[in-house]
Amino acid sequence: MQTLFPEQLSQYIERSGVPPVLLLFGDDLLLRMDAIDVIRQHFGHDAEKYHWIQSKDFEWKQLSELEQSMSLFGSDTLIELELPENKPGKEGSNALHSYANQLPENHTLVVIGSYLKKEHQNSRWFKSLAEHGPLIRTQSPDKARLPVFIHKRAQKYQLTLAEGVPELLSDWFEGNLLALDQELRKWQLLSDSGVITHEFLTDASSDSSRFNVFALQESIQAGNYKDALHKLTRLLDEENDFHRFVWILQREIQLLTTLKSHAGNTDVSALFRRNMIWSNQQPGYIKRAESLSVETLHQLHYLIERLEMALKQDSGESPLVLTVHLLGLLCQKESSLTAAHSLQPFSQPLQLENTFISL
Asked: Taking every annotated instance into account, which residue ranges of this chain make up the domain DNA polymerase III delta N-terminal (predicted)?
């Protein structure tokens, strides 16, 4: 079975023509749309086009009925069949197997599904169809390959990304390439020079909560406590949900702790690769890990545990107060360690919350 990626599909069709079967599987909506657009472009205006979505009451006899009716006219026919769960069922499996054994002329069947597992590839219907056309994997690139993908995607819209911007956008849009594409289209209109810099992104994304989560992370990495509180305020103004960004705090604490334990080890490249930390961010992490005391790291782990209990078990502590202390320790604000020692449920929350909200 031949396997292609969406960016290879156009060249494949130009070289070999449109095959009778195309298997389009993967979770990324943007790459799926790209592949479908390439396929549709190779069918003229006179071609018959159908788009079916399998449902509980889907009638599989449509495949054979369409074959019989189209044979009278002999026109090119494109059939797009979506399988939301990659499982056509017994009737569907038989129908697809039968279709593969008696392929109609001038027909192309595009079977569209989500992430493809081994059990799907080993099914009879899939093996039958795979004999007549390639598998196109529409799976989002892993994070290590994402900056290259983003760079090429920006070029499609005549945009040039400044140094470090592809890596930053990888953090912002990992797992949501459709949102990335929408932003690139918008920036094409907003940018006079066509060059996307960090400053441009700051201005363009200031009102979007999607970016503010990562802006919070950048403030923490820069040790800017006041700015981190401001970013947190913006997030809570838009959606009062700590679960959405608490993973950033957990990730930072765990990574800094691991770096601290590797103090003196000149080669921490494997650790950075494992945590997907870009090269331009690595010196800052090393410096912060060196400057944080073991006592501070213990306090950070203690506070993150309390924050999780406050969120998951309703312990009675204020997640806001705990988060403010966590930010202070991560940004190495001198007064935070002492405050974290004395923090008790319902003791200082009101004063701290008022101070926080007034920033």
From this structure: 23-137
What is the mean predicted confidence (pLDDT) over 177-197?
A: 90
Please name every residue paired with 137 in a beta bridge, in sequence order, or none if there are none: 25
Q: What does 175-196 look like in DSSP terms, one character per residue?
A: T-HHHHHHHHHHHHHH-SSSEE
DSSP alpha helices (H): ranges in the chain? Answer: 6-16, 29-41, 61-70, 89-101, 118-121, 124-130, 146-156, 165-173, 177-190, 198-204, 209-222, 225-238, 246-261, 269-274, 282-291, 294-312, 319-330, 334-342, 349-358
- Domains delineated in the chain: 3-137 (3.40.50.300), 146-204 (1.10.8), 212-358 (1.20.272.10)
Instruction: Output DSSP code: residue 102.
Output: S
Cα dihedral sign, 182-188-189-190 = positive
The predicted-structure confidence for 226-252, as pLDDT tens digits, reads as follows 888 877 877 776 655 666 667 778 888
Total-model pTM: 0.62
Structure tokens at 78: 């494109």
Interatomic CA distance for residues 350 and 59, integer angstroms: 62
- Report the DSSP beta bridge partners of residue 4: 136
